[in-house]
Amino acid sequence: MYSKLVVLSALIAATLAAPQKRLPVGGPESQAVILSHDSNIEPNGAYSYRYETSNGISGQQTSFDGANAAGEYSYTGPDGVLYRVVYNADTYGFQPQGAHLPVEPPVPDHVLKGLEDIRRSPPKDPEFNLATLDAQIARLRATLG
After folding, report:
1. Which residues of the chain have pLDDT under 50?
2. pTM score > 0.70 for this model?
3. What is the b/e burial string over 90-127, where b = at least 16 CB atoms within 10 angstroms of the residue's CB?
4. DSSP string covering 79-143, please?
């Protein structure tokens, strides 16, 4: 038992005495600084903020009720392209839009018709949520352009 403790102590001492590898300091991105930042928070929960960094990252967001928000952000990708995302975040979730993001294909007519039929004669199930169905129908109609 005593010999095992001596060996374990020696291993720990050798590990601590060994030269420590330093992690490489990041490239130019790690040297980025905040160029500007503004924020405002109202007593009713409304808020807004805006920021910009020296490496080209910027963003802003506004909420009039503290629950739903709209904003945008942009950055330069590793490929050198400037990417910009505009979004809404509300009861339907985070809804980003950007030229580089995939777009949902149009809904087939028969799917939309089926959902509208359900809307006209909703199930009697107490857990059925008509508002959710209405939201889905509105979202799918938007795919039609």
Report:
1. none
2. no
3. eeeeeeeeeeeeeeeeebeeeebeebeeeeeeeeeeee
4. TS-EEEEEEEEETTEEEEE-TTS--PPPPPHHHHHHHHHHHHS----TT--HHHHHHHHHHHHHT
